[in-house]
Amino acid sequence: MSDSPFATEDSDLTDGDRQNAGSGVDPFAAAPTVGAEPVDSTDSADAPGASAPFSDDPIAVAPAPADPAPAPNDAIPGHGEALPAPADAVPTPPEGIALAEGTGLSTDTVTAPANPVPPPPEVPLPDPGPGPGPIVTPDAGAPAVATSTVPQAPPRKLRPLPRIIAVANQKGGVGKTTTTVNLGAALAEQDHRVLVIDLDPQGNATTGLGINSRELDHSIYDVLLNDVDLEDCIEPTSVLNLFLAPASLDLAGAEIELVSVMSRETRLRRAIEQVASDYDYVLIDCPPSLGLLTVNALAAAGEVMVPIQCEYYALEGLGQLMRNVDLVQRNLNPRLELSLIVLVMYDGRTKLGEQVATEVREHFGERVCRNVIPRNIRLSEAPSYGQPITVFDSSSKGAVAYRELAREVHHGSA
Fold first, then answer.
1. Quick one: three-class SS letters along the chain?
2. CA–CA separation, 343 and 16 (whole Å)
3. What is the pLDDT of residue 320?
4. What is the pLDDT at residue 333?
5. pLDDT reported for residue 313
6. pLDDT, tens digit, for every residue of 298-315?
7. pLDDT at 197 over 70
8. How far, in whole angstroms, is CA 141 from its chain's centroid?
9. How far is it, in rounded angstroms, from Cα 347 to Cα 315?
10. How far apart are alpha carbons 296 and 376 in whole angstroms?
11. What average pLDDT does the segment 393-401 reach?
């Protein structure tokens, strides 16, 4: 061991120190500066500008590039503006806002950019027109209820059975007989007992139901003038539950003969009162006039049904019929009322039919039946075979229309 005060015992050296001592490296030498260019003692004097070879020192760091790239925010010479940041760069949050760890997102609310992209202009939608109605919610907890904007027809007055209905219109050829026969057959098809009284001297309802008046012993003429009971005059038809009080040619002179008869306006009413309880519906086919036969029908009935052809002339005589109904109501039959108006011979292809239907509905309101009877050739052919339309052609448009009309009429019965 040396006597020098700076001598160090060999036992105090670490294994690394001994290794460095054996390799000739001074353990107390300062570490090279990071980024400094290493100097080779053998070549630095001869070639000062030569590049340094790779060093065996594990601490040595590769030299920094001579000309570093300008930062993204450096100004471009000659423009005075800063380069925009890359698209995928995360913006630096303002002071006081911390980033969530591992996400690169701010824990505070993200502020919208100063110049947001304007939204696309709104394109107005076409008006869809009246829909089924708004959804009305009266209370917060109550379920939504759909309310239709289409006006609903108010319910008709319920009338007890039996119902005695006079089918009247002083204009001829408007479908009185066709409506009486086919409505009666449709009601009978729905299990209602129906009596049809043919009060028209032409006797079309009689032949339309397949009955030959020349072969009968009694007709409605005998009931009015010879005091024959109505029950003895009634004839069954080929339709179940449908019965007929037929007319005859003698009825043509009945109005003249009734002038001198006592209680001439109420003779039919007294005859119907004897059999009314046996039927659900009594339909009276009136003649195309406002004479004594029609007055007898109005005095006996509780309701008036008016068929109206969807043409202009059919509306002209309606006012006179309304006045006669009012006279009978005030003097002979206080319970009489105009309850039903049926639109017949309707042709939806013409504007005239639509205009007539609109005017009638606006004037008479709820008394106009919702179901209309269309023009149908099968309705014209059925009487020549002595059958109602429900038997002659059960699937035709006319048969379907009269069935729907029968349901609507019966819907007003109590």
1. CCCCCCCCCHHHCCHHHHHHHHHCCCCCCCCCCCCCCCCCCCCCCCCCCCCCCCCCCCCCCCCCCCCCCCCCCCECCCCCCECCCCCCCCCCCCCCCCECCCCCCECCCCCCCCCCCCCCCCCCCCCCCCCCCCEECCCCCCCCEECCCCCCCCCCCCECCCEEEEECCCCCCCCHHHHHHHHHHHHHHCCCCEEEEECCCCCHHHHHCCCCHHHCCCCHHHHHHCCCCHHHHCEECCCCCEEEECCCHHHHHHHHHHHHCCCHHHHHHHHHHCCHHHCCEEEEECCCCCCHHHHHHHHHCCEEEEEEECCCHHHHCHHHHHHHHHHHHHHCCCCCEEEEEEEECECCCCHHHHHHHHHHHHHHHHHECCCCCECCHHHHHHHHHCCCHHHHCCCCHHHHHHHHHHHHHHHCEC
2. 121
3. 82
4. 93
5. 79
6. 999 999 999 998 887 777
7. yes
8. 26
9. 16
10. 32
11. 94
Residues 6+ away with beta carbon under 8 Å from 281 = 161, 162, 163, 164, 165, 184, 187, 192, 193, 194, 195
Residue 244's nearest CA partner among 366, 68, 386 is 386
Q: What is the mean pLDDT of residues 118-139?
A: 48
- In the chain, the domains with their CATH numbers are 163-411 (3.40.50.300)
Q: Give the Cα separation of 46 and 27 in Å (integer).
A: 29
Chain segment 12-21, per-residue pLDDT in tens: 555 555 554 4
